[in-house]
Every structure is written in structure tokens, then in C-alpha cells.
Amino acid sequence: PGMTPAWLSAVLLTALLGGASGADTVTQTEGSVGISQGDPLRLNCTYQFSFTTSLFWYVQYPGQAPRMLLEDLAGQNSGEGIREGFDATHETKDKSFHLWKASVELSDSATYYCA
Ligand SMILES: *[C@@H]1O[C@H](CO)[C@@H](O)[C@H](O)[C@H]1NC(C)=O
């Protein structure tokens, strides 16, 4: 913000591969995603479950415990979670729950988990 050039304000976002249990799997954007302040962000999340399930995005800011960003309970956005300007739509047809934000800030630098 302020005097900081945009190129210095590159936002580093880390996402880790989602865990797998049995035949049910969650796959999310892997590794680090570096984007500039003010840019849109999309982190991908797809799943393979035999039935409709509840989905979550968690965010872990540096030095803090993970917190729930948003949740979808069996196809219904619960409205719970800290959100922080993020949104995700549960597409049951595509089996996806991509995380999206229109314009990221430096403070969005964190680890994001799809579960
Ligand atoms: C998300 O998926 C789209 C379409 O497959 C791809 O173009 C994009 O690079 C992916 N984004 C990330 C951050 O993995």
C-alpha cells in the first residue's frame, strides 16, 4: 500500500495438496502461488466422493492456527467462516469448490487448505 511499488508487493500464497482417505480424495492447487497485490486469486479444489459432502476452505496465517474461511454443507453455503472477501461455489456437477477473491492484499499471504 501507499509508496510500495506493486512489484514489491507480490503476494505469496501457499497451498498444499489435500489429504486423501480411502477412495475419497480432495485435490487442490499445489505449491506456492505468487501474485501481485490487487490481482484476482483462484485456488482450485476438486474432489472425488461417492456422495454429496460438506466442503471447507481453511486459511492459516503465518504464526497462527488454521481458521475456517468458508464452508458448504452438502451443496448449501452455510454463511459460516471468516470469509475475508473470499468466495467459493460448490459445483456438484464438476465436483469442484474453487476458492476465489477479486483482489488480493499482502495480508492474504497464507496457507490455504481445501478439505
Ligand atoms: C485452476 O484450474 C484452471 C483450469 O484447469 C487452470 O487454468 C489454473 O491454472 C488453475 N489455477 C491454479 C492456481 O492452480
TrEMBL record:
GO terms for cellular component: T cell receptor complex. Pfam families: V-set. The keyword Chloroplast does not apply. It comes from the Eukaryota. Residues 24-115 form the Ig-like domain. GO terms for biological process: adaptive immune response. InterPro entries: Ig-like_dom, Ig-like_dom_sf, Ig-like_fold, Ig_V-set, TCR_variable_region. The keyword Signal applies. Keywords: Adaptive immunity, Immunity, Immunoglobulin domain, Receptor, Signal, T cell receptor. SUPFAM superfamilies: Immunoglobulin. PROSITE patterns: IG_LIKE (PS50835). Residues 1-22 form the signal peptide. This is Ig-like domain-containing protein. It comes from Pelodiscus sinensis.
